[in-house]
Write a structure and sequence with these properties.
Elements lengths: L5 E4 L4 E5 L8 E2 L5 E2 L5 E2 L4 E2 L9 E2 L14 E4 L1 E2 L9 E2 L6 E2 L4 E6 L6 H8 L2 H10 L6 E2 L2 H5 L2 E4 L2 H41 L6 E4 L4 E4 L3 E4 L4 E6 L11 E8 L12 E5 L12 E4 L1 E2 L9 E3 L2 H4 L5 E4 L3 E6 L5 H13 L7 E4 L2 E4 L1 H4 L3 E4 L2 H40 L7
């Protein structure tokens, strides 16, 4: 049995207001009030995110009280700086901190007609997004307006059903966000252990090393990074479908997949190229790609648990390479070291260009001198961080399952195709 749905214009159900125009002269790098931007919308996961792309997000000027938002307020963008952004929704996480700027719309529901929880998913539904996209002002960057949002046609059930639908979907989203928050803590904990153990050299007597221009423990080796690398394995893109000798089915890691490791494309490669298949403790490195603000060199360590998450064997694409260590005991140390260099922008110094595409000069980078700790210290580090990484992967698998469940339920619930008891 389907749910009875009634037709409305969004303007009959919500009030939509534009934010304040904020003068750039009052932008600041610190303060009490943060101006909202398009960078606060995680349009892929349809939720709020902290904007880390700019350092002048604070505002020191005068702001009317009505533009300072409260926890739980629903916002939606009026400017589409990234395709797919229009129609996204986010909830303000904290009262008295965020300023509604002019490119951000505040949505307030008419309580007798529309439930807040339901509205959050209604505005970001595929139907509303399509209408906003069709009506958007066609400039270099597309824009919408409060009136265009209110002009969208929607179909909704009666309010008691709305509340149940909102509760189901928000419960799933809260579980997903809790797991993401756990993973952020686990990642930071592992990084702190790395910094404390190797950068601060905790518990070791140190001496000054002229080559590195820093103090390191006397029994740690200073040599090229390549001295600890056994080989590089090139990538393979193969074929989309099996044909002739292209019959070895694999899942392929592209540069864009390194961080999330979901929805890997399935490909077929030559059986003779099975030597390129990824093994435990291989470090996958993005060789080509990046952007003006993002270097190449992103990496991901292949652990046993990660490899077991996939039905197929894994391989990296032609735009990546896999680095195999001489001693697998050093794999965690090298992977954290690699990420430290990436996060600090070091890899911008090892890039070349061919046909407009940036390429990571891996051979040059591994000639870099660095320090390598004694095996006893590395083994202690491994024992500390391996369980943290394993827990992150377990959480990631749950996030993927819950996200699939939510994405399957959402259109069925929002269109009344399934009944809520």
């Amino acid at each position: 049995m389907t749910v009875e749905m009634k037709k409305y214009k969004l303007g009959d159900l919500i009030d939509v207001s534009r934010g304040k125009s904020l003068a750039g002269e009052f932008y600041a790098t610190s303060g009490n009030l943060v101006r909202l931007t398009m960078g606060n919308f995680d349009y892929i996961n349809n939720c709020f995110k902290q904007n880390t792309s700019k350092d002048n997000l604070f505002f020191s000027g005068e702001v009317e009280e009505k533009f300072i938002l409260n926890a739980g307020d629903i916002i939606t963008p009026l400017t589409e700086q990234t395709p797919g952004l229009l129609g996204s929704t986010a909830r303000i996480p904290e009262s008295g901190k965020y300023i509604q700027s002019q490119d951000v719309a505040l949505v307030r529901c008419k309580k007798d007609k529309l439930d807040d929880g339901f509205a959050y998913y209604l505005i970001s539904s595929e139907s509303v997004k399509k209408q906003l996209g069709a009506a958007a002002q066609q400039t270099k960057i597309r824009h919408t307006s409060p009136d265009k949002i209110k002009d969208c046609t929607v179909y909704i059930p009666e309010i008691s059903i709305q509340r149940k639908i909102g509760n189901i979907l928000s419960t799933l989203d809260k579980r997903i966000e809790n797991l993401r928050a756990q993973n952020r803590v686990l990642e930071q904990t592992a990084k702190t252990i790395y910094d404390y153990t190797f950068l601060q050299c905790a518990g070791h007597q140190t001496t000054y090393n002229k080559t590195l221009n820093r103090n390191i423990p006397t029994n740690w080796e200073v040599c090229t990074i390549g001295n600890y690398i056994k080989e590089n394995k090139g990538g393979d893109w193969g074929k989309e479908n099996p044909e002739k000798n292209y019959n070895l089915q694999v899942s392929c890691i592209r540069g864009a997949d390194i961080d999330k490791m979901t929805d890997l494309p399935m490909r077929y490669i030559l059986a003779k190229n099975s030597s390129k298949l990824l093994q435990e403790f291989d470090l996958v490195v993005e060789i080509s790609g990046g952007s003006p603000t993002q270097s190449t060199g992103r990496s991901r360590l292949m652990t046993k648990e990660l490899l077991e998450m996939f039905d197929n064997k894994l391989i990296c694409s032609n735009f990546c390479q896999a680095v195999t260590m001489k001693n697998p005991q050093y794999a965690y140390y090298i992977s954290f070291m690699w990420k430290m260099f990436y996060d600090n922008g070091i890899f911008f110094n090892f890039e070349g260009k061919t046909s407009g595409i940036k390429n990571f000069q891996l051979d040059q980078f591994v000639d870099t001198m660095w320090f390598f700790p004694d095996l006893k210290t590395v083994e202690k580090f491994n024992a500390q961080v391996a369980p943290l990484i394993k827990k992150q992967l377990f959480n990631a698998k749950q996030i993927e399952a819950l996200t699939t469940q939510r994405n399957t339920l959402l259109p069925l619930l929002m269109t009344g195709q399934i009944t809520i008891k």
